[in-house]
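Supplementary Data S3. Sequence and C-alpha cells for construct A.
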Amino acid sequence: ASAARTVDTASADFTNYDAKGVVLFLDVTANPGAAETLTVQVQMKDPVASKYKTMSTYAATATANATYIYHFYPGAVETTPTTELEVQGLPLPRTWRVNVDHSAAGSWTYSIGGSYVK
C-alpha cells in the first residue's frame, strides 16, 4: 500500500506456484529530493537456511514522482529503451520478495505491486 517511508522496506514472502516471471510497479507519489534514490531489488529465499539473497538490483533508480516498471522474466531483453522501465532476464524463484533500498533517510511515499507472468 502507498505509505510514507524513510528506511529500506521489504515485502512479505511471495510463493511462486507456476509463473516464470513478474512485472513490478513502483508508484512514487512524494520524494525528498536532494539527490536521494530508491532502488528495487528482487530477492530469493534459501529454503533451508531461510536467508535472502539479492538476485537483481535494477540499475535505474527512482528519483522523482512517477511509476517505474521492473520486468523480471527469463530471457527478457529491453528492445526499445524506455524511461522508467528496467528489464532483467532471470527466472523467478519459488519463494521471493521485493526490497526497496533507500539511499538516505528522506521521506518517500510509494507503493509497489506486481503481476505474475506465465
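Construct B, processed identically:
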Amino acid sequence: MVLCAFDFDATLACGEVSFFTGHERMAGEFGGAERIGLLRAMLVELNELGARCVVVSFNSKDTINRALRAIGLIDLFDGTYGSEHELLEGLRARKSTLLAHLRRDNEPVLFADDNGGNVRDVVSALPATHAILVPPKPGGMLAEQMVA
C-alpha cells in the first residue's frame, strides 16, 4: 500500500482557501469543473490501486472538510489533518512528524506540497518518499502532475 499525502492550499486548491469562502465560489478556488474532474480522476485511480489518500495541511480541518465536501471530493480521502491536530500545532510543527505517525510500517509515501521546505523535510525524514513540488504559478497541482 502507499500513503498519498496532499497539502491543501495551493496544492489541491489553487490558492489559499478561507473558512469564509462561500459555497458558491468553492469550485473557482479549485480551478473550475475541469480541474476538479482531474483531481477526482487522480483520487479515484489512487483509491482503486489501494492507496490511502490524506490531506495534511496547516489550514484548519473544518475549512478543508467544508471545501472538499462542497466540490464532492471528501469521500475520496481517508482522512484530513489540519492545524488543530496535535502533531501540526505550533511554530515548529513539521508535516513529516504527522506522516511518520500515519505511515504503516515502511510503506512508501507520495507527498505533494507547494512549499519546498515541507517537501525537503518529508523527503529527508521518511525513506521511500516520492515528492511532488507544486509550482507557485498558476497555483495548485498541474494536470501533468495529477496524471503522473
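The mean pLDDT is 93. The longest strand covers residues 52-56.
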